[in-house]
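Q: what sequence does this backbone want?
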């Protein structure tokens, strides 16, 4: 029996300085933080990652205010989305609501018992935020 694996889903929490990246396993069951990269190197990082791993879909966070209107960082992320589409025209791209992911990531850091100095690591916060976006997407996809 030869079961073909579907491939990974990757989530991106793009920011002005840093970009958090999370990824699923090949069966798209488990979401885990992968890394945080400098935002100016995000496309280069993705090119290298896509050359090594089978990624079938990429989620990019869509920042919104509480009332659903675009946030102040929307224009920065839209520029990244356009660059992404040009670099990877064949990649399926899904925009996902990223409201509350940073707060949820900080709460997860607290709950895990990280010391104050570790909780101040913004790179870790961005990576966890991307993982939360990905887990939320997977949980909606299953139902």
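A:
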């Amino acid at each position: 029996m030869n079961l073909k694996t579907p491939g990974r889903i990757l989530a991106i929490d793009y920011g002005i300085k840093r970009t958090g990246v999370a990824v699923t396993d090949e069966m798209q069951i488990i979401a885990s933080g992968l890394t945080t990269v400098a935002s100016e190197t995000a496309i280069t990082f993705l090119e290298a990652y896509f050359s090594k791993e089978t990624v079938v879909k990429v989620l990019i966070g869509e920042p919104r205010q509480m009332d659903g209107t675009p946030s102040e960082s929307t224009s920065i992320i839209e520029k990244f989305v356009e660059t992404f589409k040009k670099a990877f025209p064949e990649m399926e791209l899904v925009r996902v609501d990223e409201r509350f992911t940073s707060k949820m990531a900080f709460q997860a850091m607290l709950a895990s018992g990280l010391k104050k100095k570790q909780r101040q690591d913004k790179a870790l916060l961005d990576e966890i935020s991307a993982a939360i976006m990905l887990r939320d997407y997977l949980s909606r996809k299953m139902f």
